[in-house]
From TrEMBL:
Residues 19-467 form the Cytochrome oxidase subunit I profile domain. It comes from Gracilimonas halophila. NCBIfam families: ccoN, ccoO, PRK14485.1, PRK14487.1. This is cytochrome-c oxidase. The gene is ccoN. It is an enzyme of class 7 (translocase). Its EC number is 7.1.1.9.
Length: 735
């Protein structure tokens, strides 16, 4: 080849460096927030006097920080480094790269400025409110345009396997985010999803499971396919296996979301589909793992010496463990034990710490010396980081596995007389407290390792000379269609738009088949005549419950197990949730289920419980909420919220928003008067008045489950009860 046919171009290392720095900084912040909430489960009063640092508000901040700030920046770090080199061209637009970087950081900052202040949708991995959702969509599209246009102007005819996974990530995350973010704004920072109850649960876990699949898995698989061959200096083990791995993975994964909802009120056919496709996931997942590990055949001696390969190998091995465990947890009998327990926390962090963390640190150690034209400052320190990270993950994951199984078996144990062995839920919490301590130790070890790694990378950068524009050269594509006869897939690899379109079709099939019948066929969600919409005060209480993150520790879904019906009451029915925007079934029980708590305790009990949980439950690790006794309700926005809920289908009569505040005040006054009459007009010198948040929380708690329990509905005796009932449209069908 004549040198005159080569074209010279420059890679943009400046964008790569910025995403790398952001990955490190946000990672450290996310890890520290995670350790903070772990400590709060051991010492509930730790930072308990600051509402913005309460467990319920920090927990979604932690998940968003590690998923979208740490892993998200790591994905872009890997893509902006590998994609231009695979395409032999710089990114299409440096301006779009800059907008993408700063826009993504602004989104992360917006999460920091909203989640600790209780601005929260409650939907796992999608907690950010509607203006931020719009910003995410815009920035994601900008990233996608830049990526697709870079691929279109490539100098390599065929797209390497890593690029397939990058394309699948862009397409699927866009679809997931947009569909799950259909919401009706009520105010600037408050919205309600258009879906309710069962439909909302299905869409959320279709999103939630596939956010893990297509944000924390497929882009990292692309990273694996690029960096393992590069670090080992060997070609990928099997091209054919990579084809099977890619298409089977993206087709099957999208169906698996319902396995998060086994034994719930979700229709049985949807649960069965989720289980079947989850079990099928073992094959493509392990195919990818083996393709990565077998690439190292004959190069294992390098693993002993190279910290990059160490992190890659442990990361891919953890991916194999987690993707075997996930399908096993989708089997109904196994799920019955593991779901709602700490086992799932261990399962998730096994992947997060070692798979995502391992590949991220491998990238950082591989890329940093190259863009700074130097060697790694200290291989020994990188190895120290590796062992701290690995042992930290072990100390985190194993106690959660052990504690989760212990916890679940205690929930289900009966005496020989047929009574619950541990009727007090708190007994199942105090039993596993040592495991929480070990988890905190594991998290601390992981953070220490990350600090060592950050220092090592900083010193590497200091000793090197940054190359902002890296020169390369390649021959242009003269005729992409020219050449000998190729297989169908080889031809598809030369047609990125067709590959993108086919990817979109493949991932839409499962989602459409699962959701459409649930949304359109009435028999999937039979209604119950006695179930009525929430009153204005209950709406305010529910929104406070969401803002404080109570759903992070409490479920509202009683499964049809003898142990659960004995402990909580009648199992939950699909028709009970038709007015729940959003659904609050929960995914973890650090505290007991609350779906039948209405009428179980007097209002005064809830006052004491929220002010000082140990006064009603000695040894409780629930945080106190003293600010609820001084913070006022957001009464002014109630009409707007009523209007938004009516727009998404809750049958409030036209014009009811004009009466809503009056009804809220009447119900609040009734609860407050009852507290005063029973000697609970104040607590610790704080007078309880009808405009405080605690009154709304009491109203919501006392409503839960009463519609089918036969209890008196708490708003039946209001002076305006006839008017309230007149503003609801009755159900037309009975279950």
């Amino acid at each position: 080849m004549s040198s005159s046919t080569l074209e010279t171009f420059h890679y943009d290392n400046e964008t790569v460096r910025k995403f790398g720095i952001a990955t490190i900084l946000w990672g450290l912040i996310g890890f520290i927030v995670g350790l903070t909430i772990a400590l709060k489960l051991i010492w509930p009063d730790f930072l308990g006097f600051i509402p913005e640092l309460s467990y319920g508000r920090l927990r979604p901040l932690h998940t968003n920080a590690v998923i979208f700030a740490f892993a998200g920046n790591a994905i872009f770090y890997g893509v902006y480094y590998s994609l231009p080199r695979l395409c032999k061209t710089p990114m299409w637009s440096r301006k779009l790269s800059d907008i993408h970087f700063w826009g993504w950081q602004a989104i992360i900052v917006s999460a920091v400025l909203t989640l600790p202040f209780g601005i929260n949708t409650s939907k796992e991995y999608a907690e950010l409110e509607w203006p931020i959702d719009i910003a995410i969509t815009i920035i994601w599209v900008i990233f996608g345009i830049n990526m697709i246009m870079t691929i279109m102007k490539r100098r390599e005819k065929h797209l390497y396997v890593a690029i397939w996974f990058y394309i699948a990530t862009f397409v699927t995350v866009a679809v997931l985010h947009v569909v799950n973010s259909f919401e009706m704004p009520a105010t600037f920072l408050k919205s309600y999803p258009v879906y309710a109850g069962v439909q909302d649960a299905l869409v959320q876990w279709w999103y939630g499971h596939n956010a893990v699949a297509f944000f924390l898995t497929t882009p990292f698989l692309g990273i694996m396919y690029y960096f393992i061959p590069k670090a080992a200096n060997r070609p990928i083990f099997s091209y054919r296996l990579s084809i099977v791995h890619f298409w089977s993975l993206i087709f099957i994964y999208i169906w698996a979301g319902p396995h998060h909802l086994l034994y719930t009120a979700l229709p049985g056919w949807a649960q069965a589909l989720g289980t079947v496709f989850s079990l099928m996931l073992i094959a493509p997942s392990w195919g990818g793992m083996l393709n990565g590990l077998l690439t190292l055949r004959g190069a294992w001696d390098k693993v002993r010496e190279d910290p990059v390969l160490k992190f890659l190998v442990v990361g891919v091995t953890a991916y194999g463990m987690v993707t075997f465990e996930g399908p096993m947890l989708s089997i109904a009998n196994v799920n019955a034990i593991a779901h709602y327990s700490d086992y799932i926390i261990g399962h998730v962090h096994n992947g997060a710490l070692l798979w995502n963390g391992g590949l991220t640190f491998a990238m950082l150690y591989y890329i940093t010396p190259r863009i700074y034209k130097t060697k790694l400052y200290s291989v020994k320190l990188a190895n120290v980081h590796f062992w701290f990270a690995t042992m930290g993950a072990v100390f985190y994951v194993i106690p959660m596995y052990w504690g989760g199984i212990t916890q679940s078996l205690m929930w289900k144990e009966f005496t020989s007389e047929g009574l619950l062995q541990y009727p007090n839920f708190l007994e199942t919490v105090t039993q596993i407290m040592p495991m929480y301590g070990l988890r905190a130790i594991g998290g601390t070890l992981f953070i220490i390792g990350a600090i060592f790694g950050s220092y090592n990378l900083f010193k590497t950068a200091r000793q090197g000379s940054f190359e902002a524009d890296e020169v390369d050269e390649a021959q242009p594509i003269i005729d992409p269609a020219a050449g000998h006869k190729e297989s169908w897939h080889r031809r598809l690899e030369g047609r990125p738009l067709q590959l993108t379109a086919l990817t979109l079709v493949v991932i839409l099939i499962g989602g459409i088949i699962e959701y459409v019948p649930t949304a359109l066929v009435k028999s999937n969600v039979p209604t119950i005549a006695s179930v009525k919409p929430y009153t204005p005060l209950e709406i305010e209480g529910r929104d406070i419950y969401i803002a404080e993150g109570c759903n992070n520790c409490h479920s509202q879904m009683i499964r049809p197990f003898r142990s659960e019906t004995e402990r909580y009451g009648e199992y939950s029915k699909a028709g009970e949730f038709v007015y729940d925007h959003p659904f609050l079934w929960g995914s973890k029980r650090t505290g007991p289920d609350l779906h039948r708590i209405g009428g179980k305790y007097p209002d005064s009990w809830h006052v004491r419980h929220m002010y000082d949980p140990t006064s009603t439950s000695p040894g409780s690790i629930m945080p106190a909420y003293p600010w609820m006794f001084t913070d006022e309700m957001d009464i002014e926005s109630i009409p707007a919220r009523i209007n938004a809920l009516r727009t998404v289908g809750v049958p409030y009569a036209e014009g009811y928003e004009d009466l809503a505040i009056r009804d809220l005040e009447a119900q609040a006054e009734q609860i407050t008067r009852g507290l005063h009459e029973n000697g609970f007009g104040e607590i610790d010198g704080i007078e309880i008045t009808s405009d405080k948040q605690i009154i709304a929380i009491i109203a919501y708690m006392q409503r839960l489950g009463v519609d089918i329990k036969g209890n008196v509905n708490p708003w039946e005796d209001l002076p305006s009860s006839d008017r309230i009932r007149a503003n609801f449209t009755p159900q037309q069908e009975d279950e």
